[in-house]
Amino acid sequence: ACAATRSDARPTLARSRPTLSSPRPPRRAAARVECSHLEHGNMRQPTSTSRRTALASALCGALLSAPQAAITGPVSAAEQLPAASLAAELLALIPSMEFGAPATNATVPPALARKIEARAAAVERQAARDNAKDPRLSDSWRLIYSNGREITNLATGLPLGFVLGKTYQPVDVQTGRFENQGLVEHRLGLARASTLVIGDVRLAPPGTLNAAGTRNERGNRVDVDFRRLTFGLDAVLGKPLETPLRKVVVTRQNPDAAQPANDVTYLDATCRITRGGDDALFIFVRERGNRPMLSLEEREALFAEGGAAITTGSGDADLQKGAPPELKALLREERRDRVEP
Questions:
Q1: Cα 121 from Cα 76, distance rounded (Å)
Q2: What is the mean pLDDT of residues 262-272?
Q3: Cα 308 from chain centroid?
Q4: Which of 285, 340, 336 is nearest to 156 (CA)?
Q5: DSSP reduced 3-state for 78
Q6: Cys-Cys link to 127, which of 2, 32, 121, 266 (CB 3.0-4.6 A)?
Q7: Measuring CA to CA, how many Å separate 61 from each of 34, 40, 165, 304?
Q8: Nearest-angstrom CA–CA distance, 277 and 104
Q9: Beta strands in 187-260 (DSSP E)
């Protein structure tokens, strides 16, 4: 729940006003000298009370009371809008994708991706503090745009005719739970699959650094721990499986790596912008999916199952040695064959 702004915004006072070094007609220069007597507290009255002196004094007062922004230069039209209006324009820029998949910097034209990411940055510059403590954070969110590697790989490279569909992130900060739910559809409707990340979430301590070196100074950060990653086959030929096929991966964080964290850089009743620990961009709208988040009991039962164990935060080379093929595809390096316009 986030149109380009005209670049030919009305010029500000500073744009049309000559600089102090600009040549002025002699009469205006004299008026500025008379005005300077008033600026510096010289109580000597001008020798003339002519209309010219009165106009000069009025001009001096206008200059001294002019807003600083008008003197230092114009502010972009986009930056003058309220954050909620910028967020609405941001959402309007993001196109709907096939099967409801999130748009990514690899699936939209590069120029549009740059425009979306620039507008997201403008929204973030007006964001509030302490978004991590905002009760509106705890809800179900649908991802509609990202430049994160994992999402980009899912959106561009699934085999055998499978494509990424809608992707949800339910969050419950009070109970410390979050999930990343990715629906995987087949173009011909032959099967339906899913990916699921189960993790813990909590408020991050003030002043901590993430993997990108960004310090938590605004109270917008949550620390996350990834507990399980599952890949499932849920339906074949349109018929749900009585017992879905599922592969479980146990994720363990490398103790020498940075704590995984997300910065909630913008939050309102409709839209959420998040930066991952590597500064990847994720834009969500508030929307409830068809799959409820696992209960605390269901989580514990899944944790008890075990599964193939991998260590995250160790770099792709180490991770892929023992990783299942699904995870290798998820974390492969981004493609370099896209042609910039």
A1: 13
A2: 96
A3: 32
A4: 336
A5: helix
A6: 266
A7: 12, 13, 62, 75
A8: 18
A9: 191-203, 221-236, 239-253
| Strand 221-236 relative to strand 177-186, pairing | unpaired
The predicted pLDDT at position 280 comes to: 96
pLDDT at 338 exceeding the cut of 60: no
Unique residue bearing structure tokens 């042609």: 339
Q: What is the pLDDT of residues 43-61, one digit of tens each?
A: 444 444 455 544 444 434 4
CB 274 within 8 A of CB 124: no
CB 172 within 8 A of CB 238: no
Tokens of 227: 């507990």
Residue 294 is given by DSSP the state: P
* pLDDT (0 to 100) of residue 321: 53
Angle between helices 26-39 and 51-65 (to 10 degrees): 60
User: H/E element holding 32?
Assistant: helix 26-39
Contact 118, 258 (CB under 8 A): no
Query: Coil, helix or strand for 318?
Result: helix
Residue 119: which of 4, 6, 220, 10 has the closest Cα? Answer: 4
The residue assigned the tokens 């941001």 is 90
| Residue whose entry in the numeric block shows the structure tokens 């820029």 | 93
* Tokens 């001009």, located at residue: 59
Compute, in degrees rounded to 10, the torsion defined by CA atoms 133, 139, 145, 147: 50
Q: Percentage of the chain with pLDDT > 90?
A: 53
Could you tell me the pLDDT band of residue 325, with boundaries at 50, 70 and 90? low
b/e for 67-97, b at 16 or more Cβ within 10 A? eeeeeeebeeebeebebbebbbbbbebbeeb
Tokens at 212, concatenated: 């990108």
Residue 122 φ/ψ region, left for φ over 0, alpha for ψ in the -120 to 50 degree band, beta for the rest: alpha
